[in-house]
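Limitations
The structure tokens in this dataset are predictions for the assembled complex, not deposited experimental models. Users should treat interface geometry with appropriate caution, especially where small molecules or nucleic acid strands are included. An illustrative entry is reproduced here so readers can see what is and is not provided.
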Amino acid sequence: MDIATGQHYVDNLHVNDQQQLLCNIRQVKNLVIGSNKQKTVIMLCGAVPRLLQLLGNETMPAEILVECAVVLGTLARGGEANRRALVEDGALPVALRGLAHSDLKLVEACLRFLRLIFTSPVAPINILYEDATIIPHLIQLLSRSLSTQENVASILAHCCKTHEHQLILLQHGSVQALSPLLSSNVPKVQLPALCCFAAMCYENQQVSSRVASASYNGEPLYHHFNSLLARNKPVKMQLTAAKCLSYIRKVGALRPDTDIIPMRALPTLVRMCKKDMTTEERVEGAETLAYLIEEDLDLQWTASFTDHLITTLATYLKVNEDQCTKSVNTSMNSKDVSNLKQAAFKVFASLGANDEDIRKKIIETENLMEEIELGLADNNTKVQLAAVRCLHSLSRSVQQLRTSFKDHEVWKPLMELLSSPGNADVLVVASSTLCNLLLEFSPSKERIVEAGAVNLLCRLTEDLNPALRLNGVWGLMNMAFQSKQEIKNRILTKLGNAQLFKLLSDSNVDIIMKTLGLLRNLLSTKPDIDSIMEVHGQDIIAVVIIILEEDHPPCVKEQTLCILANIADGITAKNFIMSNEDILKKITNYMLHGNVKLQIAATFCILNLVWKDEEGAKERQIKLKELGVQKLLLQMRSSCDQTLLERVSAAINQFPSQY
Amino acid sequence: MAADGASSTSSEAGHNPLSSTSLDRIKGLYPAVNEDETPLPHSWSCNDKSTFIGLSQGNLRVHYKGKGKAHKDAAAVKATHSIPASCGIYYFEVKIISKGRDGYIGIGLSVKDVSLNKLPGCGKYSYGYHGDSGQIHNSTSTTTGMGRPYGPTFTTGDVIGCGINLIDNTCFYTKNGLHLGVAFTNLPSKLYPIVGLHTPGEVVVTNFGQSPFMYNIEDMMEEMTLKTKASIERFSVENSKGEWQSTLNQLVSTYLVHHGYCSTAEAFGRSTGQKFDEEIASIKNRQKIQRLVLAGRMGEAINETHRLYPGLLEENPDLMFMLKCRQFVEMVNGSDSEIRNLRNPRSRSTSRQSSPSMSPHRNNISSPHRSMHSTYMDHSTSSLSTSNSRPSSPASSTNIKHAKLMSSKKEIVTEVSKSPSSSDLNAINSSNSHVINGSGCRIINEDADVDMEVDMNDHVGNGKSFSNGVAPSSVSNGTSSTSSVQNGSHINDGLDVEEMDMEHQIPIRKRQLCGGDEEAINHMLNFGRDLQRTSDLLEQKHGVNESNRKTLFDAFSLLAYADPWNSPVGFQLDPLKREPVSAALNSAILESHNMPRQPPLELAIGQAVQTVKLMSKVGLGSCAFTSVKDYVC
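Predicted assembly:
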């Protein structure tokens, strides 16, 4: 059909005689059905505005309206460009208004059109939420017919994207309205209903609890999900049912006494990872699994031995060798390869999050470290992030740090990642992994330091992202632990006092804690303490006073008292405390603090000051006695905390008995 | 967990775990297994066991009673029988009651002649999963039982399941209901469940299926059924030149001709270009005779046969004898024409004009038969009809499929892929063939949008896949449905309707011998004497024929009871018993005209049934997950 003929057809839509008009619309319908080319031509000829005009005319007989909606629906099938054009022509509001019509056929035709639009990426989803009556109306339409069930559930499933959306759906009774669809026995209805439940429950505690406690036909809703996990159901259905259950479980809404997750949902997801599934199913299955077990050691353990999961995932990483999997005859495109890889890395990361034995099993995967290294350098951010997560998870293992991590020098690509600006999530996980690599027992530590880690980490402490600042300090803290004085000095010089103070006044408590930890690690071993205090003593004491005076949680105060205790452990450094009555008074105050941990730290500090064999001990003891410390210690003997008691008696023993 | 706990407590409480219900439960898991040929393992064998093994609780509880010191102190026990291939998937579970000293427990499979003083996996052709190491072992003729890492270890309280997939010959294990993955591949056939213990105090109890398993094996079997079905349906046949298509058409056509559905056959021939050799008149003749037999009017049937096929019965004395015996039965029944004429015009309504077909569907006969004929013949029973409301019920075979459809409606709705049975229906009604219809069905199963595209007006109705599957709509789908309807009702196919139509005037009343007519009884007795003479003559000529003797004996036995209908031999009076007689006569006629005794369609079905049986015999596990009944009812 050329444009001229198309024009002719469109012109025919302007006749006045309704019978003729109906005929002409049907003609157009028959013309465009099954041919995308015809659809495009007829749209170019301006059919859409006329059809919308007709559809919006409520005085028209329902028959004509229905045909208009059907033609629009058919046009919407014609591809993304058509759908975009339809949206731009303002078809959505007209079709939405059609939903209010009393004729069920018209409602169904409009819903079908709307579903086609809303399930495509061009959909302006918000239009559904702009008018507060639309969602309740859609939910109410769920009970009308199979066609409305299928279409409404699909629309809702695709348009539930945010926390707000989830709550709006919940609020209008979607849970009750969707429940009957699950047992409708029509897969085309069950599946979108399941998808909708999944979309509503994802990361939403409120909705999940409601779904978890809901029941239909006298059976808990999650039993209905469970029955859709059966292996004779369509794969997509099994997968989505497993997703629903996983999402509900993840936010802790599922009753803990049900074994539906380890016994049903988890094995289903593992099965989805198998070779005979499509790439998409394998990816979705693995991603959902990774998400489900992320924080649950029991599930990690269960998954680790369910149906050779780890071996199965290893095949995800080999896809570029095979080029194509058995299940799909089409060769894999690079997107599929990336998707599979990142999915596998994610599951490995989750599996290895807590348990050393599982990590060992993972690391036995052939070429895993090489794949991770490649993944770190992948130009797909998703792959990068998943790879670095996996590496991070494995870096929690002391043994791996000593073996595979050393052999593979994974710190190199990590440092590289961190040296250039990139995806914030990648950087956070990468820096966190680097922190683990800087632990004192890590054989890579020295080489990382040599490679300029001090500069890198110091720069991170200045980042706007608190997570990166935290990891920066954390890394420095790990680096400073039991390290050579030279490195300590390098850290202090590079970081600078100003930055140190800035970190100590950070709004993030974790950052303060790690910075104090850094200070503690710097101020260890007597010669180091004295030499550092000699240079930075005044500043450090000033900072300590400020923190002790400011309003901070006990853990911060404890850490600060520990720093004082370290300073008190020095030789010359002791004077910084002894000469400062303000500090001494503060310490004695903390000895009487309600929090026993602070008492312990303060007592420890005193103990370090009164060691009788050390030079100048006598003077210090006298001074402290004047301050009433000895009396205090004697009082504290009534404490019931064992650690505190030990410290107290040790301190008392330092004082000569004749006093 | 709970289920297994229950089973073990009941065992421990001393109940006999091998009650008949538990055996039924095991049987129920493997419906394709014929236990007469290949019995299922129900317990451990008292004979095939090491002396260090003690059995109790119906041979389900196994404990170790050796020293457990040396290597040779290991002890194993095999199940009573090997695992039949027709199980498809076989599975058993072992609960570790106590790990004893060291928990050296092995669970697995082995061939018949395995050394029983080794743990499973350590002897030749033996396969085992070991509790202490979590490793799996197997040794073939060349390798020894080296362990390989496999799963977690297991110990007291754990339930270990062992499954064997007899289709791809792999073995998998489960622990506490979780699938641990495939452990062995390329397994040999005829394996036995086996369990081995090695140190004192080790005790296990076994669930061979007598109580529910922890692992959901049924779920796995369902999946296999689905996969098997899919592979059957997706099996591709060479159809480049339409040979397959025409073969199918021929199957349908010959079936119709054979059973005398001549108008349907004509209509089918017209729309598919299928020719048939027999003349229409001949088909009608056969149909007429069949109908007489099925109406119980044996005398007329015999006369007609003599008239239309002279010499046929003379050449087949056994057939003749069979007809005569039937005639005698029909006389008792009061439905034979010779009797009926005597007590004219009254006759009994025992005969429900049955279909001319010798239906292969004995199981679901009564109601569909009733319904299809009552629509036009037997008003008194029409209330029984289930499908009466559909006056368009077509030829009998389709009608029966309808009935099947109705009864299995639920399945159809749940599993759209079941709908091939409804496509059969279309195949007969419409001019289309199985194949075309089959693919049409598949389209329906796909996304609604596909068929919505095809559709013109009623897009909504078409969007629902199942509405097509429900019978009424598909009946009206057929292009030639009108003619087949007429066909089914026999009205215009040349038979003397008036002559036939006499049954409905008789209201139901007490059944009496020969309709209660004395003259008729005399006639019947005379006939019986003749029959006895014929029998004697036949025996003189051809020797003793056991089946003839039995037939005659059964027929005469009817007279020994005051109420033959409720006697132990009363089954003969059932109008359904006319069908084999009718079929035998029909086959003989066809054979005498050099046509096959059996339509190719029935031959094909028979062949398929035998093939499945053969699969079971030669150890092809897929036979567990399919049945010819799923395709032809």
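Some entries come with short summary sentences. For this one: Residues 324-329 of chain A have pLDDT under 50 and may be disordered.
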